[in-house]
Amino acid sequence: MTDEVSGAPAPHAPAAAGTVAVYRGATLFDGTGRPVRPGTSIVVDGPVVRAVGDDATITAQLPADTQVFDLDGRFVVPGLIDAHQHIATPPDRPAAEAVLRRLVYSGVTAIRDMADDLRQVGDLARATLVGEIPGPDIRYAALMAGPGFFDDPRTHLVSQGETPGAVPWMQAITKDTDLPLAVALARGTHASAIKVYADLDHTTVAAITAEAHRQGVPVWAHATVFPAAPGQIVAAGADTISHVTLLAFEGTDEPLTSYKRKPRVAYERFTAGDDPHVEELFALMRRRGTVLDATAGMWASEALAGDGPDDAARAAANTELAAVLTAQAHRAGVDIATGTDYETDPGEPFPALFEELAFLVRRCGMSPAQVLRSATLIGARGAGAEDTMGSVEAGKLANFVVLDDDPLRDIENLRSVTLTVKRGRCFERRAFDTPARAEGAATARAEGPIPAHAEGPTTVRVEGPTPDLSAEADAPGATHRAEETR
Pseudo-torsion of CA 317, 322, 325, 329, nearest 10°? Predict the structure, then answer.
């Protein structure tokens, strides 16, 4: 072509290969299971971590023109991962961009989008990947369900202009479906996985899973698909299952007929936290490496508070159920990822993921270190991206978060974020407060060309504390209702 143009501006593009920066003086929780390491340097080459080591060793090996970020002992953790988001039900580009922006400036460097209008999600994923807009990487799923599910109003919201159940990102599956073609169509959306949702028996779930795996596609499923039960879904080979409260249908005496006709939950079965049916299920999940996307704190959120005493009682019962079952899963050694399935109000300074992490610590018997592992390495595993993200190691993406305060002492200290590095690109938290002016200044300051100095490396001090974020209250954005899981 003779008329090539550069395309849309990409002010948040990943750092270019060959652009070397060092983040020195970190107190590093690297996500691998190693102890926290003070006095640590992280060498970043473009979008990738080149090396991690003690300050003295790394400094001795630095080229003279290397840009150095002096962290002065601040805490560094891997980029956080929200394992359960919906950013296009219904599509609303300004609202989605506001959510994505807040996520990345809060330290979230990747999300799993668990089925939406993939026409918009695919473009948002491209835009955050190439840096047209600020936001985490987006790994998203194409949905499959039985035909009876597709009169759900949400399926119409995400298929506007087309027929729900008859589009590649939202397919109705029957005994006559050509599964190799169905999976291939889903792959054509560039989806990272197939989401198995509702109204499918265990034979069909197993067939979808086998074909998806044959084509190299992971399967992310609801924990109960109706009539397929949790144990059947895990036995079929689903890679992750979502919503811990749906595990209450394992071992029920009542038939699991359809998504719309769920049996009553016998809450009294689970109060002791040792239900034997669920214990057997967790043992199977541990053996197979199935990740649990618990969404444990969802029912405690304002998004599901409801409008009256009946709604409040239901939310309280499900909150307790989620806490008990998640704690039992943790004790059983199940890998737990940190998904939300809702968002906080647009005026809030931080996303729902922070509420989920706090819930896991306060209500589910997990330590802050265990929760951080769930929000990083296990989240990456559940998203099928453990080879590129989830820990701060040489060869992985340069995705990490700089904090003023120790999150291992108090998980709420994640709110002391001062800097997110995503694919080597800096997102200073203070730029979140005044998006137009401060974000441009931060781009020029921290993301521009690295200067060459013959005398030695350039040092950029990362300053705190986190600024007042009240100016963000009028920014565009919207919360979505949590996915109906009960």
Answer: 180
- Phi then psi for residue 72, to 5 deg, are 55, 40
Which of 133, 107, 86 is CA-nearest to residue 343?
Answer: 86
**Two tokens at 224?**
């109960």
Domains in the chain (CATH in brackets) are 20-77+394-462 (2.30.40.10), 80-297+324-382 (3.20.20.140)
Question: Would you tell me how many other CB atoms lie within 10 Å of the CB of residue 363?
Answer: 18
pLDDT of 481 = 47
Buried b (16+ CB within 10 A) or exposed e, 286-298: eeeebbbbbbbbb
Q: Is the pTM of this model over 0.85?
A: yes
What are the CA-CA distances from residue 237 to residues 165, 335, 428 (Å)?
24, 15, 41
* Token couple for 301: 């959120």
* pLDDT tens digits, one per residue of 178-187: 999 999 999 9
Pure H helices in 364-470: 368-373, 379-382, 437-446
d(CA 390, CA 377): 4
Q: The dihedral of CA 33, 34, 40, 41: what is its sign?
A: negative
One-letter amino acid for residue 477 of the chain: G
Answer whether the bond into residue 230 is a cis peptide, omega within 30°.
Answer: no
CA-CA distance, 79 to 7, in Å (whole number)? 29
pLDDT digits (tens, 9 = 90+) for 77-123: 999 999 999 999 999 999 999 999 999 999 999 999 999 999 999 99
Give CA angle at 101 (485, 356), nearest 5°. Answer: 40
Q: What is the pLDDT of residues 268-299, one digit of tens each?
A: 999 999 999 999 999 999 999 999 999 999 99
- Please state, in angstroms and rounded to a whole number, the distance separating the CA atoms of residues 163 and 156: 8
Beta strand 75-78 with 400-403 is antiparallel
Q: How confident is the model at residue 433 (pLDDT cuts 50, 70, 90)?
A: confident
User: What count of other Cβ atoms lies within 10 Å of the Cβ of residue 395?
Assistant: 10
